[in-house]
Design brief:
Helix content is about 50%, strand content about 15%. By secondary structure, the chain is α/β, with parallel strands linked by helices. It folds into two domains: about 5-165, Rossmann fold; about 175-304, N-(1-d-carboxylethyl)-l-norvaline Dehydrogenase, domain 2, CATH 1.10.1040.10. Strands 3-2-1-4-5-6 form a six-stranded parallel sheet, sandwiched between helices. Strands 7-8-9 form a three-stranded mixed sheet. Strand 2, helix 2 and strand 3 form a beta-alpha-beta unit. About 45% of the residues are buried.
Length: about 300
Amino acid sequence: MNVTHQKIGIAGLGQMGSAMAQRLLREGFDLTVYNRTASAAEKFIAAGAKVVPDLKTLAASVDIIFTVVSDSSDVEAVILGKNGLLEGAHAHTLIVECSTIDPQVSEQVGQTVRRAGFRMMDAPIGGRPAQAEQGKLIFMVGALHEDLELSRPALSALSSNIIHCGGPAMGISMKVINNLMSQSIQLMDLEAIALGMKAGLDPQVMLDVLTSTAADNAPLRTRIPQSVLTGLYPSGFSAKLAHKDQGLAHTMASRLGVPLFTLGQARQIYSIAMTQGLGEGPSEIVAKVVEQLSGVSLRFPQDQ
């Protein structure tokens, strides 16, 4: 396999950033990493990555930097803050911002980077860490064409689908809309399953019917049978992050003057989950709130 000559950096080694790092190293990329907690970065040394002590050094050491952090303020600090990426940027620097943040913040940070003479694109992620390790993520890209093409070798190593949504900030706008829909649909599924079980229907029968009709959707085939109805709740995209993303959709809708009635209802359930200390669980753990409100246990019969 031909290994790209590009030097790649990753800033942020949470679950997704770590999985991306593992994939890029296996694909033979020259990788340098930085994480605020140094121990999370140092474990990649044995796999062939280089570790740097700060973001400024990271930017100076590589050509393309993936930023994978939690929220808008983190992105501003990582890119624009003291000893941040912008301070170490050079003529070939391209920042690929993968975090799910306010599109307006992404646009403002990108404008600052471009005014300084460097490049930035947004490429938020569809998928989970396991898919990153398999190279099966989806990237929703907001970028100038030349920046997308420059980043394509690394993006292709991580993904099965790269969708160019438009210019800068269009990728993150698409991601906010995607998460708004997926989380609202998941909650609708949970409420419907609870109603059916309360009426006496078997959950497997409901899944067989619903996945065979126009009601079919991804949570019915994945998180609900594998996590909710078994009660296992493996780690994954957290309820806390889902709640944060719903806030992003609310802010975006308020700014653009678009009503989101369904989101308002879904976010209330997620808010209850936050007050009950469920935020660190996977997003589908809001099923516990639905169980409490409906008075039914969402489990396959043999697990009750």
